[in-house]
Amino acid sequence: MRMSFCYLAVSALTLAACSSGPSEGSVTKPGPTPTASAPAPTATGTPVDIPDASAPFTLQSVAEFDNPFAVAFLPDGRALVTEKPGKVKLLRPGEQLADVAGVPAVDYGGQGGLLDIAPAPTFADDHGVYLSYSEPGQGGSALALAHATLDESGTAPKLTNLEVLFHQQPPGGGGQFGSIIAFAPDGESLFLSSGERQRKTPAQDPNSAMGKILHMTLDGKPAPDNPYLSAGGERAYIWSSGHRNPYGLTFDRAGNLWEIEMGPQGGDELNLILKGRNYGWPVVSNGDNYDGSPIPDHDTRPEFEAPKLWWNPSISPAGLVIYSGDDFPAWQGSAILGALSGQALVRAALNGKNAQKADQWDMGMRIRDVAQAPDGSLWLLQDGDGGKLMKAVPKQ
């Protein structure tokens, strides 16, 4: 989700999915550490009203998109935004949004399409980016991860040298792709969240990559420290299991890996992801099935790793950063996440490996992604047709 860069001077820009029911409720990526070399984006776009007068911020919209899924900031403050129908947009100063050519074909519909995007840890040297998407194929779609080069040498940006690194198998129907990319703190490997495609049982299948957090090298091979490496096949990629639909994945500064995932009817989770642990879906959940039938709670099966926080009723969490900016000093070290069905921005206070609910602001819109720019500013991406990219500006 994140090389030649300029800061996002919005004042100079001429700029102008899904339900939380059975079909969907959506890492984000770690926010970059602020650097003096990346000037602050300036949001002088259109003000956006929100219902919650208690929110300590206002919103400024700088661009609109067709069913956006993810926003990723480049080191110089420019941004890449994915649209689920299969487009990547580059937001750069002094110009309108630029279409990025060379995007792979996607199976767009429901929860599928072009999903996450993340600049490689080596982007400054090679302009590499990673993309996740629902890949069309015989028998249905599959979660895929690809690497490409962002080439800006010509008159228009394009993705070149695209290579598919991973395909979830077998292909088939269902949503809940997960699809969030997070890089290890050392930049030597990546983690990919993989949903269970609304099939439930694959989350507990030790030989399936569905319903898992996967860990691989930057060239798409199973990471050498994976707990089931010697088993081979898809099992060799598995870092943790028993997940439903993980739509947020990121590291904190201490190196802890945090994940958010949608529960069924209630039971949305914030999890601390630990190597080799099983998080219980669909055997346990703090929510119920959509037909109203109960699911045993986490505390009935202590062999499964329990969430650090959960939400009833559902908020449908999507997009996750561990905030480290200066605009909102009281939030530093907190998990900031969006909510789709909850139409909210949510803050959870983290204390080491523990978490506590802190704030939930009514946004009056579905928040699909949350991202932190290189200067530390906080940005939100609205879900749906005409979804806005908005900067959170502290109230004076």
Strand order of the largest sheet: 1-2-25-24-23
Low-pLDDT ranges = 1-23, 25-43
CATH class: Mainly Beta
What is the number of beta strands?
A: 25
Number of domains: 1
**Could you say what the CATH architecture is?**
6 Propeller
Biased composition (Low complexity): 28-47
Protein name: PQQ-dependent sugar dehydrogenase
Pfam family, one: GSDH
Domain Glucose/Sorbosone dehydrogenase: 65-391
What does this structure look like?
With 396 residues, this protein is mainly beta. The protein has one domain: 6 Propeller (Neuraminidase). It has one helix and 25 strands. Strands 1-2-25-24-23 form a five-stranded antiparallel β-sheet, with no helix packed on it. Strands 3-4-5-6 form a four-stranded antiparallel β-sheet, with no helix packed on it. Strands 7-8-9-10 form a four-stranded antiparallel β-sheet. Strand 23 and strand 24 form a beta hairpin. The N terminus is likely disordered.
Topology:
Elements: E1 46-48, E2 57-66, E3 68-73, E4 79-83, E5 87-91, E6 98-100, E7 114-119, H1 123-126, E8 128-137, E9 140-151, E10 158-167, E11 178-183, E12 189-194, E13 212-217, E14 238-241, E15 245-251, E16 257-262, E17 268-273, E18 309-311, E19 317-322, E20 335-339, E21 344-351, E22 354-362, E23 367-372, E24 378-382, E25 385-394
Antiparallel strand pairs: 1-2, 2-25, 3-4, 4-5, 5-6, 7-8, 8-9, 9-10, 11-12, 12-13, 13-14, 15-16, 16-17, 17-18, 19-20, 20-21, 21-22, 23-24, 24-25
